[in-house]
Amino acid sequence: MSLPEALIEARVRKLEVDPIAVACYMHDHHLTNYTDVFTTDAFYSVGDPTVITLVTHKPRYLKWASNIREYYGKKFMMMKLQNSQLTKYREELFSYLNMPVGNYTYDHIGMIAALPRMFTEDTILEDLRESFNNDPWTDAENHGKSAKIDLTFIDSHVKKAYRHHGKAKSEWMCYWCHDENDRLYMIEFDFDNPFRNFWLQTIEHTFRIEGTPIKHEGKDFMRYYTLVDWQIL
After folding, report:
1. Confidence class of residue 4 from pLDDT cuts 50, 70 and 90?
2. pTM of structure
3. Domains of the chain (ranges plus CATH)?
């Protein structure tokens, strides 16, 4: 990258509204043209005035953005106080959150775009860790053996990173359930699966499956099962 291009990418830009609120609005309306919104000309002055005007008059997006800033700001600050090592991504996000509200650089656009989805996922996972059985695994708990299990649906979120089963696409759904011992199960589902609406109706009540549970320990030491070769009975 030439020096002028590097300077352009590093240049701080400013919106009249919180960029995270704009990302929340776009996420809510399934808009994906983030570069068009946040960079409109060679000087990168302000974003799409239509989107920004709409966000300004929608307090819930401003509140959503404020909650995101507070959640990650407190979380990363606490980790630093506990001398926990932040990943490179978390360090960059923490640095961005400490900029004046409204400011961002070109390099921040992808991070800003991901925050609404990340926030939903992280807050759901945090609640699951606190509300259900996250004790260390015992030898008596099943791993790799077929069983019949009654599951109760809890919550779902969109995911766009590591996938346990199936081909990784741009996004897919994670459905969280628990068994009679309050152990968590995560079931991955494609957006374009033709049976997805039928599946949603099926899991409105406790449902029985037969499959092979596999133990996992996810980020921040969350313990849960996935299922192999499973079917609804």
Report:
1. very low
2. 0.78
3. 3-120 (no CATH), 132-232 (2.40.50)
